[in-house]
Amino acid sequence: MVIDVTDDTFEKEVLGNSGVVIVDFYGTWCMPCKMMAPILEKIADENDVVLAKVDIDENDKLVREFGIMAVPTIKVFKSGVEIQTFVGMTSESDIKSAIK
């Protein structure tokens, strides 16, 4: 499942989720982000996890809270706890390893 999350919905949708959530901090103008999007969607579909997308230009609070300095930044949460962070282009296998 792919959802858009915001400063207002992040806590409920990501931190309140009892499963695995992949959070994609992206920019609409970011070419590597556009290249990662289908890979992340495939991983989410194949592994029955939530992919939460955060537009960095629309969600300043989350960008500051998580110290996002570059995009794409991909964070993996399990039961509301951050367990892994990737910055930049990341291999499908690395992300799959993090969600296992």
In short:
This protein has four helices and five strands. It is an alpha/beta fold and 100 residues long.
Number of individual domains: 1
The shape is: globular
Task: Point out poorly predicted stretches.
Answer: none
Strand content: 25-35%
Q: Count of helical segments?
A: 4
Counting DSSP E segments of at least 2 residues, the number of strands comes to: 5
Helices and strands, in N-to-C order?
EHEHEHEEH
* CA distance, first residue to last residue: 17 Å
Radius of gyration: 12 Å
Oligomeric category = single chain
CATH superfamily, by name, is Glutaredoxin
> What is the CATH first-level class name?
Alpha Beta
Kindly name the structural category: alpha/beta
Major β-sheet annotation: 5 strands, mixed
Strand arrangement, major sheet: 1-3-2-4-5
* CATH fold type: Glutaredoxin
CATH hierarchy: architecture: 3-Layer(aba) Sandwich
What number is the mean pLDDT? Answer: 96
Helical residue percent band? 25-40%
Give an overview of the whole structure.
- The protein is of the alpha/beta class.
- It has one domain: Glutaredoxin (3-Layer(aba) Sandwich).
- The chain is built from four helices and five strands.
- It has helices at residues 10-15, 31-47, 60-65, 92-99; strands at 2-4, 20-26, 50-55, 73-78, 81-87.
- Strands 1-3-2-4-5 form a five-stranded mixed beta sheet.
- A hairpin with a 2-residue loop joins strand 4 and strand 5 (81-87).
- The longest helix has 17 residues, at 31-47.
- It is globular, with a radius of gyration of 12 Å.
- The mean pLDDT is 96.
Task: Write out key terms for the chains shown.
100 residues; Glutaredoxin; alpha/beta; 37% helix; 29% strand; 4 helices; 5 strands; five-stranded mixed sheet
